[in-house]
Design goal:
Blueprint: E1 19-20, E2 23-30, E3 41-45, E4 65-73, E5 82-87, E6 90-91, E7 93-98, E8 101-107, E9 113-116, E10 124-132, E11 159-160, E12 164-169, E13 174-182, E14 187-194, E15 198-204, E16 207-212, E17 217-220, E18 235-240, E19 245-250, E20 255-259, E21 265-269, E22 272-273, E23 276-281, H1 295-307, E24 312-315, H2 322-331, E25 334-338, H3 348-351, H4 354-357, H5 374-391, E26 397-401, H6 412-422, E27 427-429, E28 442-447, E29 464-471, H7 494-509, E30 517-523, H8 547-554
Helix pairs in contact: 1-2
């Protein structure tokens, strides 16, 4: 029986109780929103019906309803005080039923949700998930998906696309742990959420701390090892109540703005200037779309980024399975995490023309930015907050990108001020590319068709300058691509491509570092559909240039 992605998906809150529900489910697509009495066929969860790995290969339209059904038993599964059903992501609107009981509804295609189900369980259980995916016909978050896809907009996908699982827990179970490293005081702050009054934090036999729950507790780190891409040290521990135990980890590190010897504002890691050289990663796969074919695919992508000589990766307009972040944590790769965009149909003059004109607009003009729906704005802000809460503990995340290129942008100033209250431990880019509102930690540029040059050094007095997208050089590989070449520069062979890359790194990056440049993100790691500007092909079969050659060029980038 196939059961893809069946390993425990959540390394920072892992317990022994685990029943993976990935595998073949019944599936049907209908214009009728009522629960079906029969199903058309099977779908391999957690792959979307639009993907080849799902074995369905059929697109879900905005007026369709996608239904899933799974019949399962819990014969060998220990039932404790509570049984929790977890969904890591369902795109876009999900309603869930168990044994005829309505469990609830979740709106938003990129964040996890769960239900407590013990009271509804039987000897044999019927789980039904009803999904509607409006894609880009509503204000809901959709990322890079578009019904009329092409260019920088990709094939839409629907339904369950991340793992589904069940765990059984005691009434004193650990619901969550909020972890905040404080390297300046050599402490880690833990806030363990749950019904128990106290919990043991166990590093090893000689390091056990009993702390109260639901309050911030400080734990001294006896021998502090700082995390960095060069030395990605992780502290593994267990949190234990009388009847529950989870495994987790954290790292001691600090992201902040710092001044260099010339008084220039730089991005800092562990209180020192640190040049973040990274690559854009959209997390798309030719056979699984937003779903990796295996966790090994995650590892291979991250290994390639390290081999290419990058220390940073920008996760672009997507949230991943927690195991992806774990690979970055343990292998030493700083993550710039984008929030996922929504909003109504975008205007060309707002989202694309600034690349050429350089014109910025005030983002409280909701009509210009296609954010006229108050409900949509409230939904987006809540998802931003939920994203921070969901990924707060990930050591490698060093920067949040709130908006990218004006896609559904609105009210950056109050949003930034509100989000900083939730997480002041990371840096923020409120407007990647354009429509800068003069706030947050960085001034962010996207430059593709001309050389980048910092002209106004006064910008570096309070914010760091970053080149958050550049490059995009195309090197096509016959037999390993979808035909297309969206606006980027085309090269006939490796030699031409490599020469251009080396020249760009020198002129756009190295020459600008003395003038304030603090970070770069090259576009991009892999080809995605019609975009052929990756270091590796969309099918991940061909690395287009020798990684060591790129690493030798990238190694020259530093303060």
């Amino acid at each position: 029986m196939k059961q893809p992605l069946n390993e425990y998906p959540r390394p920072q809150l892992q317990r022994d109780s685990y029943l993976c529900l990935n595998g073949y489910w019944d599936c049907t697509i209908s214009k009728n929103e009522g629960l079906p009495t029969s199903y058309e066929g099977k779908i391999l969860v957690p792959f979307s019906p639009e993907s080849s790995l799902s074995e369905v290969n059929k697109a879900v339209q905005p007026d369709d309803y996608l239904f899933y059904r799974l019949i399962f038993k819990l014969d060998d599964f220990e039932i404790k005080d509570k049984v929790i059903l977890h969904f890591l992501a369902v795109d876009q609107i999900a309603e869930v039923y168990l044994n005829g009981q309505y469990l609830g509804k979740h709106v938003g295609g990129f964040l996890p949700f769960e239900f407590e189900i013990k009271q509804y369980l039987k000897e044999e259980n019927e789980l039904i998930v009803k999904v509607q995916d409006l894609t880009d016909t509503s204000f809901l978050s959709r990322g890079k998906q578009k019904l009329k896809h092409g260019g920088i907009w990709y094939t839409p996908q629907s339904g369950i696309y991340f793992p589904v699982w069940i765990e059984s827990v005691s009434s004193d179970y650990i619901a969550n742990i909020k972890i905040t490293p404080d390297i300046d005081n050599k402490e880690v702050i833990m806030n363990v959420k749950g019904e128990a009054k106290e919990v043991d934090i166990i590093f090893d036999e000689d390091n056990i701390y009993r702390i109260k729950t639901n309050v911030d507790e400080r734990i001294k780190i006896k021998e502090m090892h700082l995390w960095s891409p060069e030395s990605p040290y992780l502290y593994h521990f267990k949190a234990k109540t009388d009847h529950d135990e989870v495994s987790s980890y954290f790292a001691m590190r600090k992201f902040s703005l710092v001044k260099d010897e010339q008084g220039i504002t730089r991005l800092g890691l562990n209180n020192k200037p640190y040049f973040m050289k990274g690559v854009l990663d959209q997390g798309y796969y030719h056979d699984g779309l937003l779903t990796p074919p295996s966790y090994e695919a995650y590892e291979e992508d991250i290994n390639l980024v390290k081999l290419l000589g990058f220390n940073t990766i920008r996760k672009h307009i997507k949230i991943e399975i927690p195991r992806w972040y774990y690979e970055c944590d343990k292998k030493g790769l700083i993550v710039w995490q984008d929030f996922v965009n929504g909003g109504e149909n975008y205007k060309f003059l707002t989202i694309a023309a600034p690349l050429i004109t350089g014109r910025h607009h005030k983002d409280n003009n909701y009509k210009k930015f296609n954010r006229e729906s108050e409900e949509g704005r409230k939904q987006a802000l809540q998802e931003f907050k939920d994203t921070i809460e969901y990924l707060y503990n990930v050591p490698s995340i060093g920067l949040w990108t709130i908006f990218n290129e004006g896609w559904g942008q609105f009210d950056s100033v109050p949003i930034y001020n509100e989000l900083v209250k939730l997480d002041s431990t990371r840096l923020y880019d409120h407007a990647s590319g354009w429509h800068d509102q003069g706030i947050s930690d960085v001034k962010s540029y996207h430059v593709y068709f001309k050389h980048f040059k910092i002209k106004n050094k006064e910008e570096t007095s309070s914010r760091a300058i970053i080149l958050s997208e550049f490059g995009g050089f195309v090197l096509p590989v016959e037999g390993h691509m979808i035909k297309g070449n969206h606006v980027y520069r085309f090269f006939k062979n490796k030699e031409e491509w490599l020469k251009k890359y080396q020249d760009t790194i020198q002129k756009d990056v190295i020459d600008n570092i003395p003038h304030g440049l603090s970070a770069i993100i090259y576009t991009q790691l892999s080809d995605v559909e019609e975009e052929l500007n990756g270091f590796v092909t969309y099918d991940r079969q061909v690395v287009k240039v020798e990684p060591q050659q790129i690493k030798e060029i990238n190694d020259k980038i530093d303060y």
